[in-house]
Design goal:
By secondary structure, the protein is α/β, with parallel strands linked by helices. The protein folds into two domains: 144 residues, 3-Layer(aba) Sandwich (Rossmann fold), CATH 3.40.50; 187 residues, Dehydroquinate synthase-like, alpha domain (Up-down Bundle). The protein has 13 helices and eight strands. Bound molecules: nicotinamide-adenine-dinucleotide (NAD). Keywords: NAD, Oxidoreductase. GO terms for molecular function: alcohol dehydrogenase (NAD+) activity; maleylacetate reductase activity; metal ion binding.
């Protein structure tokens, strides 16, 4: 066995009620003038965080949007500059954390993040910016949050449909980390446990979104899966989701959820150790079928058609996917890619 593993410098504060530790986290980092970022929908939560920070908050920017449009990033940078901010607090899902990263990328301002979904962006050095309908992404250490506060109580209001798809988004990170070219034993442990936690918690959450122990398990799983995403190079699944979100505007987490079983069916035969880990974590002998059935039973969309994709879109998707090389446990021909898309379009694995 040979591997290389580089740990990212991340600080995690985890636990119900940990939001109250924000002032200490800011102080620890020497931050006295934080700009609080959120989406418009999560403004009340941003105001709560601002209240906790007291004098250490210099303002709110509540215009975060999906995929970080360049004009939103620019407006937020201006707000940070005008307020004389010495850092940002990004409270919300991947879109808000992405906005914090966009500010950090150009200004170097440190970010504290408080994730309220299972997307995992807070654990990665990956940033994204969308301009003229194209999403650019890159990696930069400057965008990695300095401190991440996970408070499961903040996730009880995440609607069931988003909880489920966001959970499968996290599971997708773990699957691709298990067969990544830069996989390693520590990442595989995190991936397997992350999938196990989420798979056990999601049905409980679907039945009772207020179940705090299940919310805690799910967020712990999301942290582990996010750490896997941050530690490895993603493959075909993330490549396709990036194209479907960036060019066809398909919803991020739902797209991950629908596509995952089909990529699993294609890739796992070429990645036996990853398949074994997922079989253990999901307690199944048939990972693709299990993923499709479990997500459908929890009410997630079953096909790409449901998300608005059509067969004529395949030309553009395959062209973009083939244009730039990406890691994958097996080579993917155009024919295999079209067959995968066709199955996912119809939802052939869904019950
Ligand atoms: P999101 O951040 O877009 O959130 C979706 C909606 O849910 C928003 O309106 C948000 O305000 C709301 N919401 C979030 N948490 C809530 C809660 N607890 N209760 C009620 N409402 C809540 O969704 P997401 O799936 O977390 O993030 C998707 C974005 O993140 C995409 O743009 C994706 O590309 C990016 N992402 C980036 C990385 C990375 O490493 N850079 C990783 C994962 C995702």
């Amino acid at each position: 066995m040979t591997f290389t593993y580089e740990a990212l410098p991340m600080r995690v504060v985890f636990g119900t009620g940990s939001l109250r530790q924000l002032p200490q986290e800011a102080e620890r980092l020497g931050l006295r003038r934080l700009l609080v970022l959120s989406t418009p929908e999560q403004r009340p939560l941003a105001e709560r965080a601002a209240g906790l920070l007291g004098d250490a908050c210099v303002g709110l920017f509540t215009g975060a949007r999906m995929h970080v449009p360049a004009e939103v990033a620019e407006a937020a940078r201006t707000a940070a500059r005008d307020a004389g901010a010495d850092g940002c607090l990004a409270i919300g899902g991947g879109s808000t954390i992405g906005l914090g990263k966009a500010i950090a990328l150009s200004s170097g301002l440190p970010v504290i993040s408080v994730p309220t979904t299972y997307a995992g962006s807070e654990m990665t050095t990956v940033w994204g910016l969308t301009e003229d309908g194209r999403k650019r992404t890159g990696r930069d250490r400057a965008v990695l949050p300095r401190s991440v506060v996970y408070d499961p109580a903040l996730t009880v209001g995440l609607p069931v449909d988003m909880s489920v798809t966001s959970g499968f988004n996290a599971i997708a990170h773990a699957m691709e980390a298990l067969y990544a070219p830069d996989a390693s034993p520590i990442v595989s442990l995190m991936a397997e446990q992350g999938v196990r936690s989420l798979a056990a918690a999601l049905p409980v959450i679907a039945a009772d979104p207020g179940d705090l122990p299940a919310r805690t398990d799910a967020l712990r799983g999301a942290w582990l899966c996010g750490a896997c995403l941050g530690a490895t190079t993603m493959s075909l699944h993330h490549k396709l989701c990036h194209i479907l979100g960036g060019t066809f505007d398909l919803p991020h987490a739902a797209t991950h959820t629908v596509l995952l079983p089909y990529v699993a069916a294609l890739n796992l035969p070429a990645a036996p150790a990853a398949e074994q880990a997922l079989r253990r974590a999901l307690a199944t002998d048939d990972v693709p079928q299990h993923l499709a059935r479990a997500s459908a039973e929890l009410g997630a969309p079953r096909s790409l058609a449901e998300l608005g994709l059509t067969e004529p879109d395949f030309d553009e998707i395959t062209a973009q996917a083939q244009a730039q090389p990406y890691a994958n446990p097996r080579p993917v021909t155009e024919g295999a890619l079209r067959a995968l898309l066709s199955d996912a379009l119809k939802g052939t694995l869904a019950p």
